[in-house]
Write a structure and sequence with these properties.
The chain has twelve helices and twelve strands. It is α/β, with parallel strands linked by helices. The chain has a domain of about 240 residues: Rossmann fold, CATH 3.40.50.720. Strand 1, helix 1 and strand 2 form a beta-alpha-beta unit. The radius of gyration is 20 Å and the shape is globular. The chain starts with a strand and ends in a 6-residue tail after the last helix.
Length: about 350
Amino acid sequence: MARSLLVTGAAGFIGANFVHHWRAQHPEDRIVAYDALTYAGNRANLEALEGTEGFTFVHADICDQDAVFACLQAHDVDTLVHFAAESHVDRSITGPDAFIETNVVGTHSLLKAARDHWLAGDEPRPHRFHHVSTDEVYGSLAADAPGFYEEQKYEPNSPYSASKAASDHLVRAYLHTYGLQVSTSNCSNNYGPYHFPEKLIPLCLTNILRGLPLPVYGDGSNIRDWLYVADHCRGIEKVILDGVVGETYNIGGNNEWNNLDIVQLLCDQLDARFAADPSLSVRFPDAPQASGKSARDLIAFVEDRAGHDWRYAIDASKINGELGYSPAETFETGLAKTLDWYLSNESWWRPLLKN
């Protein structure tokens, strides 16, 4: 039976990748891409699907409960996949209000609209509300601590992670209070195509190509578990199709790297691309490789940010054991695919740069 999906934040990084993945795997399903098109939402991310049968784009805010409800009804939505969020920690430190509004109030708006759409009648309609969250709600790990697991105590340390923790609790409450059929996934750091160039990997990649410094917080020892975005989309798909209602699943990449090693690997991979393809020096004359230097020369250590968690890592044994999920990419292969995508899609990332 064909589904009708509403995907919030569908023009953002992970949302857009998910929409492309779901369309490729389930071409019979209808997809409504819902996005407010704030700074990180880019309709060009969905350009290949515009005008195709079964795809609709809705430009609206998740905080507008009436708009969400109207959309759910107009498209007879039975599956809501909620990506929409303010997600950049640095921005949450300088401007936390937007994070509370979108991540907490916006999620509650969606839950209320979904309840009205699916549970208002005498007979509840079959449905699923899947909420996409982050490992940052669990706080920070010590060097020798095991990875975050689903029953871990929440200890958010930034306005961003606190807002996501609040949204997780609201989703759980709507299951236990109203019977809304929900599931949640908490993921590790994503990377890949369509990643907005304020985040570490695309920022460093585009800075190298323009000959700009590569800012590394502190001494670069902060550790993250990195997940290629296509692998994340496969994990969410598994949860929606086979996951148990009311359960939380942690989706990780089994790829712990410190920030400095990531930046150095990216530099080395890009150095190798320039050495193998002389046309890159013509296309990117400001890159250090164009003048015979290494991208590593651009690394610049900067003052650490406030509330910077030292280590995140995911224990993905639950989704691995119960749903048979495992990531397909190593960090090296995923990073190579990401690098190649950015080199092939300069017209996508150039307009997004501040300088």
